Amino acid sequence: xxxxxxxxxxxxxxxxxxxxxxxxxxxxxxxxxxxxxxxxxxxxxxxxxxxxxxxxxxxxxxxxxxxxxxxxxxxxxxxxxxxxxxxxxxxxxxxxxxxxxxxxxxxxxxxxxxxxxxxxxxxxxxxxxxxxxxxxxxxxxxxxxxxxxxxxxxxxxxxxxxxxxxxxxxxxxxxxxxxxxxxxxxxxxxxxxxxxxxxxxxxxxxxxxxxxxxxxxxxxxxxxxxxxxxxxxxxxxxxxxxxxxxxxxxxxxxxxxxxxxxxxxxxxxxxxxxxxxxxxxxxxxxxxxxxxxxxxxxxxxxxxxxxxxxxxxxxxxxxxxxxxxxxxxxxxxxxxxxxxxxxxxxxxxxxxxxxxxxxxxxxxxxxxxxxxxxxxxxxxxxxxxxxxxxxxxxxxxxxxxxxxxxxxxxxxxxxxxxxxxxxxxxxxxxxxxxxxxxxxxxxxxxxxxxxxxxxxxxxxxxxxxxxxxxxxxxxxxxxxxxxxxxxxxxxxxxxxxxxxxxxxxxxxxxxxxxxxxxxxxxxxxxxxxxxxxxxxxxxxxxxxxxxxxxxxxxxxxxxxxxxxxxxxxxxxxxxxx
Length: 577
Prior knowledge:
Elements: E1 27-30, E2 34-37, E3 41-43, E4 45-47, E5 54-56, E6 59-60, E7 69-70, E8 73-75, E9 79-87, E10 90-98, E11 108-111, E12 116-119, E13 123-129, E14 137-140, E15 143-146, E16 148-149, E17 154-155, E18 171-172, E19 176-182, E20 187-196, E21 199-209, E22 216-219, E23 246-253, E24 256-259, E25 264-266, E26 270-273, E27 281-283, E28 287-291, E29 294-300, E30 307-312, E31 315-321, E32 323-325, E33 338-347, E34 350-357, E35 365-370, E36 373-379, E37 395-400, H1 418-435, E38 439-442, H2 452-462, E39 466-473, E40 487-491, H3 497-511, E41 515-520, E42 533-540, H4 544-550, H5 553-574
């Protein structure tokens, strides 16, 4: 994982039969000589000849690998930390600043900070950080609202905390003041006026829209609209909205639109239509057909409405929002994927279509609007062959992580970049899979730039049976680089979960490596729906001994053979159920 921004100092050719050896004098690849972090500690990733003693602030680093690599952590005091790393006659000085939340000397508005559009009777809350002895008020239109002090607050840990096994860590926030106001009149309330002592500060503007004249938008982003649970990328993703999806806008925060079904979407991903257009659909007859490895179900609608998809064991549920069913007939013949289709209204505006499937493992789906028809395609299970090439007819996409002059990925203690090792492994894995009969597609075969969108589009275009993204790991500053190692797997859609669990367990057991864990994670290369897609973190570049295993050619060959065998065994297991 490219979780660190490390300074590239040197690149070691990967190919020696011996473990990676430090060459020359003391080298440090992380942190930079001047660095700012909010973490309570920092680790130092580097190397020196094994016979050279290395000290950190005068303390000998004794826990080094046979090749001389090191990764000690050092606690940081708030503010500037002067740190000296010395090896032999070479001395490196670091200025590491630990940033801590400042206690404001005057109130600081926290929310809202972006202009708002709301409906009548919506409630807006106002929050400010302030010293404990200062009264804070807001003026909204002609109304003056005092903000009340909140009880002591804690700040939730970052999502990265799950990667360093510190998910229970919280920190105290500055004193907060809050109050809420119900907006009872249509119109422009003007800018918020934050008031404290003799100071005045204008803030975001509030407007209350007429509920009978709400604008209608249509998703026009070519890859579909990214819907979220709130008005920023900090909020979780919902089911993407297919191109053509239509909904009313019931509110706005900055450039984020609150759609009538509940999701939020950026204004740049939609176009505004006439507000007189309908946004509530009816649905009647539903039909299905089989097409070249897929079952396609057609939902005829008079309005393309927002959707949600949920997957479970032998279950696939499609929910249509803003939809009133008038369904009396559904055609569904005997099918290799679907055992039965049931439906029921969830309320007056939602209807759920529940597919009971023959198999526990799902192999991919696609959903799109064709005019006003919603087309859902469910992929048929792959067919394994008998004999020495059981994967004949199976297509596997391998994505070697990172690449090019800018995207180096994580770095080992001697500066070896992750991009080199992922490509080396991919080129060893491909022939192992091909010997089993598989058709292998590599997203890159050389050291080139390839952004996440291109890699995702490659998966969609290739329509592989499986997609694996190969990476090696690093940690955020608060992690313990010296004592964190092992193989991890990341998944997003439920159809990918079993593959992630199986491969993580298979590799750690067969290769006698440590478990790092299996993680649900919102990563670009785990989000494709067309096939089970897993991102593998095959070891820690920043761990001294594990790095030596990572760049050892013999170990790389064993990893490639074991991973290919694990893919075969998972496919055999998954297609039996």
